[in-house]
């Protein structure tokens, strides 16, 4: 059945249905929360069904609501990828997957819940324009921001789907991504005495950390292998897999230290989780950021640190894999690559835990349903044990 005039709404009509001001409705429409298109006269129009879908959409965190994501998918020509890599490297709050092939990009988009999708149309490319139309029409991407980088005058605005936000330069696209990552909720504040840097999307990062199910769990061989490899491969007496809560740096795996955690204000990893590559400090006492740190100035006597970020399946940085030494030193390029590779393996293990937990939940539901029908069902596999809550 085709759409009728009654199915098409103006911004003012949308505002009345949503019970908000016209300005708020305009922001929702222009921001992509409600798919829209422009008339030849330049006015935005939306479908009534899309407005009703917004009303019925579960609130963030509610059952059935899409999980927040920090993954950005980039589609650009191979000549432009390096330029974007430099720009997006300055936005540590997101994880970027870049493609010069539309079909590979589509496979990646179908495998993750991207926070945003950037499609570069410089030079204009018919296949990427078709990709934009396909993405805009995909209801499963309703939570994703879609940006088209198109120089003024190269493509008529009517050739782009209404839901797509056009920008003229890669720099504008990067700036839009940075703004979109800022937490809309109230972030958990750090302790008053803490002077460490905080991610733009810190509250979402903390939700992702809790969602990982790793905090305060018993040691696991898979993670202990990685810290052992880091210690041996990089000749470091201390290797840690850290998770950063609002107040704690907790060690999922540790070699060379006895304490299971430190105050977060001690954590060199506060800086690592805001990097896309290895963060290292060759001589901690000579760096004003760390000279007074109790782990440097006190009995521990740390002198060198290097860490690489560890991500979950939604692209959030939950912690780091790091090495520490009691003597100043420098990592060469091969050692940096080794640390990044080990951190990538740690990220894979974090993602695997999430998949296992989803499977256990699905099996549990199936078991309860079967039990309700009067039949027995095999028990769900046990997951990693969790330590008792703190008193």
TrEMBL record:
Domain of life per record: Bacteria
Family annotation (Gene3D superfamilies): 1.10.1660.10, 3.30.450.40
Pfam families the UniProt entry points to: GAF, HTH_17
GO molecular function: DNA binding
Start and end residues of each GAF domain: 218-360
InterPro entries xref list: DNA-bd_dom_put_sf, GAF, GAF-like_dom_sf, HTH_17, SinI_DNA-bd
Comp. bias regions, Low complexity: 371-385
Ranges for region Disordered: 363-391
Stated name of the protein: DNA binding domain-containing protein, excisionase family
């Amino acid at each position: 059945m085709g759409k009728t005039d009654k199915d098409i709404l103006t911004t003012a009509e949308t505002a009345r249905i949503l019970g908000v001001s016209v300005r708020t409705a305009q922001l929702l429409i222009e921001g992509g929360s409600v798919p829209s298109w422009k008339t030849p006269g330049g006015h935005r129009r939306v479908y009534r069904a899309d407005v009703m879908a917004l009303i019925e959409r579960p609130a963030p965190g509610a059952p059935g609501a899409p999980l927040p994501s920090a993954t950005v998918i980039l589609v650009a020509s191979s000549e432009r990828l390096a330029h974007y890599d430099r720009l997006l490297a300055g936005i540590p709050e997101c994880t970027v997957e870049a493609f010069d092939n539309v079909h590979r990009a589509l496979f990646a988009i179908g495998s993750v819940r991207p926070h945003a999708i950037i499609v570069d149309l410089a030079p204009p490319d018919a296949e990427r324009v078709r990709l934009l139309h396909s993405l805009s029409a995909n209801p499963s991407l309703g939570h994703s921001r879609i940006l088209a980088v198109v120089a003024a005058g190269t493509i008529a605005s009517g050739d782009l789907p209404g839901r797509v936000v056009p920008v003229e330069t890669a720099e504008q696209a990067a700036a839009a991504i940075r703004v979109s990552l800022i937490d809309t909720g109230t972030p958990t504040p750090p302790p008053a005495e803490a002077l460490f840097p905080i991610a733009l999307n810190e509250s979402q990062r903390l939700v992702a950390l809790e969602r990982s199910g790793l905090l305060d769990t018993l040691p696991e061989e898979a993670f202990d292998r990685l810290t052992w490899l880091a210690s041996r491969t990089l000749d470091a007496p201390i290797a840690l897999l850290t998770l950063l809560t609002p107040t704690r740096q907790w060690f999922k795996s540790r070699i060379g230290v006895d304490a299971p955690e430190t105050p977060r204000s001690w954590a060199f990893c506060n800086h690592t989780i805001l990097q896309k590559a290895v963060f290292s400090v060759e001589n901690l006492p000579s760096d004003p950021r760390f000279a007074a740190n109790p782990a440097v100035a006190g009995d521990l006597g740390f002198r060198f640190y290097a860490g690489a970020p560890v991500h979950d399946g939604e692209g959030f940085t939950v912690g780091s894999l790091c090495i520490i030494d009691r003597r100043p030193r420098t990592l060469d390029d091969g050692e940096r690559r080794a640390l990044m590779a080990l951190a990538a393996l740690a990220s894979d293990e974090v993602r695997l835990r999430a998949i296992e937990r989803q499977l256990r939940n699905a099996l549990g539901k199936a078991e309860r349903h079967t039990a309700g029908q009067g039949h027995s069902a095999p028990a769900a596999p046990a997951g990693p044990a969790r330590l008792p809550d703190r008193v």
